[in-house]
Amino acid sequence: MAGAALWRRGAAWLRGCRGKEGKAPGVSRGCAGCREVVRTCERYAVRRLPFARPAERDVAFFERLMPGRVLAGQPEVEPFNVDWLKSVRGCSQLVLKPQTTAEVSQVLRYCYERNLAVNPQGGNTGLVGGSVPVFDEIILSTALMNQIISFDKVSGILVCQAGCVLERLSEYVEEQGFIMPLDLGAKGSCHIGGNVATNAGGLRLLRYGSLRGTVLGLEVVLADGSALDCLTSLRKDNTGYDLKQLFIGSEGTLGVITAVSILCPQKPKAVNVAFLGCQSFAKVLETFTTCRAMLGEILSAYEFMDEKCMELVERHLKLSSPVADSPFYVLIETSGSNTTHDEEKLNNFLERAMTSGLVTDGTVATDDKKIKVLWSLRERITEALTHEGYVYKYDISLPVEKLYDLVTDMRARLGQSAKNVVGYGHLGDGNLHLNITAESYSHSLLDAIEPFVYEWTARCSGSISAEHGLGFKKRQFIQYSKPRKAVLLMQQFKAMLDPKGILNPYKTLPSAPERSTG
Amino acid sequence: MAGAALWRRGAAWLRGCRGKEGKAPGVSRGCAGCREVVRTCERYAVRRLPFARPAERDVAFFERLMPGRVLAGQPEVEPFNVDWLKSVRGCSQLVLKPQTTAEVSQVLRYCYERNLAVNPQGGNTGLVGGSVPVFDEIILSTALMNQIISFDKVSGILVCQAGCVLERLSEYVEEQGFIMPLDLGAKGSCHIGGNVATNAGGLRLLRYGSLRGTVLGLEVVLADGSALDCLTSLRKDNTGYDLKQLFIGSEGTLGVITAVSILCPQKPKAVNVAFLGCQSFAKVLETFTTCRAMLGEILSAYEFMDEKCMELVERHLKLSSPVADSPFYVLIETSGSNTTHDEEKLNNFLERAMTSGLVTDGTVATDDKKIKVLWSLRERITEALTHEGYVYKYDISLPVEKLYDLVTDMRARLGQSAKNVVGYGHLGDGNLHLNITAESYSHSLLDAIEPFVYEWTARCSGSISAEHGLGFKKRQFIQYSKPRKAVLLMQQFKAMLDPKGILNPYKTLPSAPERSTG
């Protein structure tokens, strides 16, 4: 059997990754670039929980269940073990690629019985280490669950499998006169199931709201393999508790999302983007309140970035700024149903903003191509940052007035020990992306950043994760944004829905304090 | 002690309401009009669950806790026992009016220990019997929890206690240039806490989305008296599971909402309302798709009513139709930031609708007063219906194409046995209000309607409660809209959060099947 054969090849490697329990392996044979990533279990000294270890008979079972869709052993499995940022790395030996909900059900029923841990994985674009294993969790990939189930052209309701890539869905619904209610930089890779599992925010939230409003239904397979069919296509349904909400944003720890029903807004007839330079963050804020009042219902995005971000996209990606050098840049998007009206609103606003000195330079795009160019300046900051070395990423919700103070304070605090401290994000939603770069990871720099960044955020009643989730990297800091009682309740929900804890272990919820002897 | 004295006066009455356990009382001394309402426990033959019965020492405890804010015994308590529709009636002897979360906590801690059942009550405007007791549950009224805690003029985020009346909140935020994200006919009485507890939909959902998106935070007291503080004021927060969602729409069965944080949209600078006559339901639908495309982002409501509804508001409320008699009427509201643009969009649409024969008559209002008059035709249908006798109310989500077929089918089915069968509702959200009137309640008419109406809805994959909730009246029918697995999970959540089941018993979730002997 192919899977079993592969398994045997990988078996030597399998014994390596044991965290504190065993000796870490020497050099592993991974994908290019992956092998340099330090294993999560080593860098963070995590203790493996007492799950069963996948064995040959398990591979054989899965291979019978989905022949040819089981990857076992190196090197095929390696890319699934490492996150997009190359910041965390698991040592799973087994990737399963189900095509149907029934297969997911059978996989989980089996794993539940055997006490095998499972790491659900979508497009693996997460930024907090939630999408890759920490140890040898079996990776359950939604890559082959990519079918559109239905689309209603009257209501704009799309029903599809969890593994559909966001950009493909966007293209599909745009052909029918609609758009997806969310858009994000990772759209070319991320899966809609992963978007929902992490409650992704992104670039359109200001206008179309969060997935908690636009996701109408979900199909989920629970830890024991039972399927929960709440895949309705209704705008309103008040029959009992809204169970699907619990799975939105639970990062695969409560169930595996297998299908999604989502409300798509109509495609706007006119889209305009303005890219502006501001001389201070105070002007960025004043520009926001002014444009919100003057653009009203057509405002669909208000993004900002500082000059450091612009420097990085220019240097690493060879993009060029369309406006004169400024301490801050703002990207404003309008989406509406009437080109003339929208342009008039935008022009009125721009005139006001220029004459009152809110902005000092600016450019406007109305055609698709130029709009994409302007958006890429903002969307590709994340990518530009990865060229800098190791990136410490923070995704913070704050009252807008205080949004940039955190960047300034952090810059002063770290001084020369950081290469760069940059701030950008979804200002309209009060969401700052604070990023700190250094040549490589160091415990000491991390200690200078954390818990300072979380304490600072908590003092302003902010959230330590606005949209990225907690995943592996932030889970121990949940108490900075949630009271003890809330965390206890979350743990009760987890225990109720996944009593053996096999679903995405080591993620989202804090681990129990380690006992001194082990 | 005043409370205890009142209690003694009411004590004889107390012994009456025992459902199957004891003899029903003769004539009760209630508020005017209330005494005619048949007790829920009699009409529906409900069995009282084995909660403790409130006794004098309990009243004394509560009176010490909140002196002067305890109502015990008749006749003060009677209005709290009967719903707005005068269709269900409990026999509680005790109303508590806490002012603070700490008081709610103390009340619930006490009730939990004593095994006393509690019925949380807001403005008592619910339509499914969820807001009044069935037996002698202690009524926990939010009437005195009516303080605004904070309002941020930059973000539009309002934080307030649960007992604030929606209309007062609307007035308050409008003075600051914002509006509440929800609006409904009952706004003059309903409490925001009740709105959230029932996930109220209403007239603005089409534009501003559901409370699941606009409610940013909640403070909730759980059954055992512990408080859960998730009262954040952040647009985005992905730190762990979104616990507040479980309480939104749980109808007071999982916890008592004590405070709400909610995102208010900016007040539109221009509002227009068009009231139109259509010759068929097919034209109503075509008018919808046309106006959605032409009005785009400024469309804020699309409501419809049939000619029977118009007849009833004319007859009972002396309102007059502003347009020529038509089989169907449509109310379209636009809300935008630019008067000239909005009027141009609306006029273009109306011209298209008239010339293409979609609508045969219409009127437009741009000033507040006339707008209110037009809205009252739609908003006051519920009130007009109560003048007809007994009203069987159904609140159904359906694919819009099939929305009115249910009314036609029901009308044909019931023939002369019903006085009226009318249909109206939030067409833009796929939400039909089907109402059937008769001189008085009868089991046989109910049997002709149910389960037919639920089976019809289930065949179309609709929801048997779009926005009203399940409350007391619909809870046994949940399986028409939710699979068995979902109901089981809901019951597990209930058991986890309220192990003794003291919070709003007999509501939302179906009762366990009765044993044949008892």
TrEMBL record, chains A, B:
Boundaries of every FAD-binding PCMH-type domain copy: 88-267
GO biological process annotation, one example: malate metabolic process
Gene Ontology CC terms: mitochondrion
Entry-linked InterPro entries: FAD-bd_oxidored_4_C, FAD-bd_PCMH, FAD-bd_PCMH-like_sf, FAD-bd_PCMH_sub1, FAD-bd_PCMH_sub2, FAD-linked_Oxase-like_C, FAD-oxidored/transferase_4, Oxid_FAD_bind_N
Enzyme class per UniProt: oxidoreductase
Keyword vocabulary terms for this entry: FAD, Flavoprotein, Oxidoreductase
Cofactor or coenzyme needed: FAD
EC number: 1.1.99.39
GO molecular function: (R)-2-hydroxyglutarate dehydrogenase activity; FAD binding; zinc ion binding
Name by which UniProt lists this protein: D-2-hydroxyglutarate dehydrogenase, mitochondrial
Known function: Catalyzes the oxidation of D-2-hydroxyglutarate (D-2-HG) to alpha-ketoglutarate. Also catalyzes the oxidation of other D-2-hydroxyacids, such as D-malate (D-MAL) and D-lactate (D-LAC). Exhibits high activities towards D-2-HG and D-MAL but a very weak activity towards D-LAC.
UniProt catalytic activity: (R)-malate + A = oxaloacetate + AH2
Family of the protein in this entry: Belongs to the FAD-binding oxidoreductase/transferase type 4 family.
